[in-house]
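Bumping with the actual sequence this time:
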Amino acid sequence: MESVKHPLARTPLYDLHLELGARMVPFAGYEMPVQYPAGVLKEHNHTRAQAGLFDVSHMGQIRLSGAEAAHALESLMPMDIVDLGLNCQRYAVFTNEDGGILDDLMVSKQGDHLMLVVNAACKHRDLAHLQAHLAGRCKVDELADRALLALQGPAAGTVMSRFAPSTANMVFMTAAKVMLAGVECFISRSGYTGEDGFEISIPAAQAEALARLLLAQPGVAPIGLGARDSLRLEAGLCLYGHDMDTGTTPVEASLAWALSKARRADGARPGGYPGAEVIFSQLAKGVQRKRVGLRVKDRIPVREGAELVDAQGVTVGKVTSGGFGPTVGGPVAMAYLDIAHVATGTVLHAIVRGKAVSVEVTKMPFVPQRYYRG
């Protein structure tokens, strides 16, 4: 039987990407810009120095509403949502019965509802997961008529306050409704680059006008998926389906910091989510493998899938993300290693096209985070 090829979806900014000379590639079922004429290296450096505008409209936006929404969502994740403050945002993960990660997401509290931003490749599965488990407890709505833009970089705050002065008072991981270009937008001070910045949810019909307005500002340039990946890698941020998946727990993924105290074994509302006992056990007794950062000694990029071996040639791990870090000035990678080899400073070898390349376990992020905390 022949497989049916589904046409790729397009974001509301598709025509603008073409106008700006973007090279489009398939990504998570969408045609997305991987780079513009400036190229990945210049786009990366521009974001670190000034401000970059990213189209992330392929991500899923979901609203949960009703008095029970926060308690309901907590039943699917090891995060404290009940006590999440108004206009505050939290990083979260959905877990399965084995403690594995179904997806990572952002959750923010807005008055009588919660706003979720989930990964593009997982959004249909996430929506079905929420509808199946939360039916009758809260209303689950996919906001398919909205676009999502990310303005990232040290100049982002200045640019945003030009249009919405109140944003100057926002700090990292807070959210608000603001008027931009005459349209009510839902924004959060957050992002996926390690830099200060904002993610802007806007009705799809008005997205292009806002994108053009932002791109017309001094210091703002369009940035594609290529630089988005190198920026998040340097920031030590996971990419779902690569650095974590259904076979990886948050503890193994070095995300224990995100597991809220209230939901731990000795917390106010312990467990009650899928895989809680597995995660409690790992927090108490440790894990057999863990996600770590690697600095590559030679200037040879070490890519996803490369095996890592010890001095005796025994395989002790595998690279899950890797590439050149423009700000670092050399190749960097993230990998899962057997627990005996995760100490900072441990020297191993990555096997790249049959050649052993020296790598050293290092702390992440690879570049300092510059989130705005006031």
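The tokens above came from a reply further down the thread. The chain has eight helices and 20 strands.
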